Amino acid sequence: MAALQKSASSSLMGTVAASCVLLIALALQGGAGVPVGAHCRLHNFQEPYITNYTFMLAKEASFEDNNTDVRLIGDKLFRGVNMRDRCYLMKQVLNFTLEEVLLPQSDRFQPYMEQVVPFLADLSRKLSLCHISGDDQHIQRNVQQLKDTVKKLGESGEIKVIGEVDLLFMTLKNSCVPKSEAGK
């Protein structure tokens, strides 16, 4: 029995030692075990039913949107953002949309909301490791401008966010799905 415990203990120590060596190697590379942009991708993104629900949700909300002068997801959001960083930007917009608008408003616009929110939450989870190398201050500034606009508009800003969930959906697809999969 003692020999078995000693064997298991030395095997465990070998595994721990190998893990430490791997962590040290990653630290020497600046933690770059996986390319930063590798996690900024979505695969198997689009199911026809969720596309329909997303567009119906946006359409229902747009009936209540009285502010036609403001566009939240448009050229201004992408100002100064490289194409390779757009998925990261859209991850930030997705997280804001879920946390600050869709979840608090989840009792509205049924049955669409109950289908779309879990789908978008799953996309957010899939993008949780998405980061960019370098400074993201320009992206954070653009996202903050969007947040400030929504806050300034109050409830109508939240309705506008929901009314643009179709734009969020399509922009996520265009920014985060590899081009080889985008047409599928």
Main sheet specs: none
Structural class: mainly alpha
Question: Could you state the order of secondary-structure elements as H and E?
Answer: HHHHHHHH
Distinct helical segment count: 8
Proportion of residues in β-strands: under 5%
Task: Give the CATH class of the largest domain.
Answer: Mainly Alpha
Known CATH architecture of the largest domain: Up-down Bundle
Number of domains: 2
- And the CATH topology of the largest domain? Growth Hormone, Chain: A
- Name the shape in a single word: globular
- What portion of residues is helical? 55-70%
C-alpha Rg, in Å? 22 Å
DSSP E strands, number: 0
Query: Distance N terminus to C terminus?
Result: 58 Å
Pfam family, one: IL22
Keywords: Signal
Signal peptide: 1-33
Protein name: Interferon 2B1
What labels describe this entry?
184 residues; mainly alpha; Growth Hormone, Chain: A; 0% strand; globular
Overview of this protein structure:
The protein has helices spanning 2-28, 48-62, 86-102, 112-126, 137-153, 155-163, 165-176, 179-182. It is an all-alpha fold and 184 residues long. The protein folds into two domains: 1-33; 35-182, Growth Hormone, Chain: A (Up-down Bundle), CATH 1.20.1250.10. The longest helix has 27 residues, at 2-28. The protein is globular. It comes from Cavia porcellus.
